[in-house]
Amino acid sequence: MGTTGAATSSRLLRRPYVKLAAALVCLAGLLGFDLLTNPNIRIGGLMVAVPALSATFLAPGQVLFVVLLTLLSVAVAAVNNDTLGTEAFPISFATVALISVASVVTASLRQRRERELAQSRWVATVMQNLVLRPLPRRLGRLSISSVYIAAEKEANIGGDVYAAAVTPRSVRVMVGDVQGKGLGAVEVVVYLLTAFRQAARNGTSLAELPDFLDRSLRDDLVDVRATSGDAPDAVSRSRALEGFVTAVIVEFSEGEDVVRIANRGHPPPLLIRRDTVLPLDPMESALPLGLGDLCAAEQHVDTYELAVGDRLLLYTDGVIEARDAAGRFYPLADRVARWTDRDADEMLDALRSDLLRYVGARPTDDVAMVAVQRMV
Question: What does 112-152 look like in DSSP terms, one character per residue?
Answer without folding.
Answer: HHHHHHHHHHHHHHHHHHHHSPPPPSEETTEEEEEEEE-SS
